[in-house]
Amino acid sequence: MEKIKLIALDLDGTLLDSKKEISPNTVNLLKQIHSSGVKIVLASGRPETSFKKYLSLLDLTGIDDYSISFNGSKIVLNQSLTPIFTKTISYDVIKEGLSLISKLNLGFFAYTLSGLLVTNKITDYVYLEEKITDVKLNETNLANYSNESFIKMTIADSKDKLDLYYNLIKNTFLDYQVFRSHDNFIEILNKESSKGDCLEYLMKKFSIKKDQVISFGDNDNDLKMIQASKYGFKMKNSSSKQLKKYCFKETEFSNDEEGVYRELIHFFR
Questions:
Q1: What is the SS3 assignment for 214?
Q2: Can you give the residue range of the structural domain that contains 41?
Q3: DSSP summary character for residue 48
Q4: Measured between alpha carbons, how far is 106 from 122 in angstroms, rounded to an integer?
Q5: Other Cβ atoms closer than 10 A to 83
Q6: At what angle do helices 24-35 and 259-267 cross, to 10 degrees?
Q7: Among 16, 17, 232, 252, which residue's CB has the most CB atoms within a 10 Å radius?
Q8: Same domain, residue pair 165 and 197
Q9: Strand positions, DSSP E, the chain
């Protein structure tokens, strides 16, 4: 087996437990692995400001430490959170999304390039984003942002409603990345935005081959990242059929049972 040189980790439902914490065993192991020269890359749907505390906790703040945020719309240098890769969508896409959710009576929010979290109406499902990320929601007329670029937009509603409308939403935005990042979220991003695209960017930057990469994820937004690494793990707590089809292995333990830690110790004893 080739020496592992990079580990990519989704956060919610994967590295983080149900309390949004990383177990001490996992923290200590990741620090040891990182100090041995292995790249540790956090890859989240969250904005980078929302997981800054985890970068500090894991000591991932060196001059060559990077993270993937907004499900692959950004790569940032951890030390300063400066982006080195950014893909956006235009206000025209936002406008089309607003038209669709108005017809289907669904919730909606979006992130502007400047970092604002905006929505035309706060619902319980839209508010879930604020609870997850601690980024404040701004209820506003999105026409006020017609001259802005956006990082991503998200349709947020009940699992049953999103299950019902998923194919319609996907077919409406054929020229964009469309995937489930959560039971209650369908995300629409630039077609060149994915955790997998960003992971491959970093692999090329550091001359790392596919068989030197481990990744962990729990939802469909992790699929391309799983496919970009030889050792792609689907979390036991994941219900994603896509990940099950393409992963190297399903973890024997969930995110609440130190699933990441228990798999990594087999590679780094």
A1: strand
A2: 6-86+193-267
A3: G
A4: 11
A5: 16
A6: 30
A7: 232
A8: no
A9: 6-9, 39-42, 66-69, 74-77, 82-86, 107-112, 117-119, 137-139, 150-156, 177-182, 185-189, 213-217, 231-234, 249-250
- Is 60 in the same domain as 20? yes
Contact by Cβ (8 Å): 48, 67 = yes
Lookup: tokens for 35: 């100090």
pLDDT single digits (tens) 199-255: 999 999 999 999 999 999 999 999 999 999 999 999 999 988 889 999 999 999 999
User: Six-digit token pair at 188?
Assistant: 């629409």
Q: How many domains does the chain have?
A: 2
| Amino acid type, 206 | F
Give the Cα separation of 40 and 5 in Å (integer): 9
**Tokens representing 210?**
């596919």
Please, which residues have CB within 8 angstroms of residue 194's CB and are 6 or more apart in sequence?
71, 72, 177, 221, 224, 225
Q: Is 1 a member of any domain? A: no
Task: Indicate the burial class of 158 (C-beta count within 10 angstroms; 0-12, 13-18, 19 or more).
Answer: middle
Query: Is the full-model pTM beyond 0.90?
Result: yes
CB 119 within 8 A of CB 98: no
Residue 192, helix vs strand vs coil: coil
